[in-house]
Amino acid sequence: GQAIILGIDTIVYANEKILEKPKSLEEAKQNLKSSAGKTTSVITGITLINKYNNEIVQDFQETKITLNNISDEDIEFYIENEPGVLYASGFIVETIVSNFVKSIEGSFYNILGVPVEKIYEHLSDFGTALSGLWADRGDCRFRWNKIFYCMDWHCSDSLCAGRSASYGNLGQDT
Q: Which residues are annotated as catalytic?
């Protein structure tokens, strides 16, 4: 069938290494501690496949986040109170960590895992209007044929329910 297919994946690069998804609270704590007072890069790889004309675009978006120095007490508070602490790099900038952010250079949405500005740029290059992608489906914001992206942490749409709609996970319309 005809579709525009989007594939994205995000990494966090800090201290000369990729910060993996932490396997423990201690590892999450070390990731945040080692990034405090420094600049980290959030890099998302993007592939768009236009099945209408078989055009493929590959690109990336980088956002730099500088954190303030963070006290051990505040790091402990974060580890104890952030329900998503074992996701991504171990620190989630749109929650408690937002208090520790000194500056952001680049796309905020890239930090969330979906650089919508860059994606829109390429969709525009395809000649695709946003109105042709939009679907009003509860909390689900965008529709690319049979792929939905939920921007809300608690998407109530039945297509996304139970699929952990946060952080840019995709649900498939079956």
A: 9
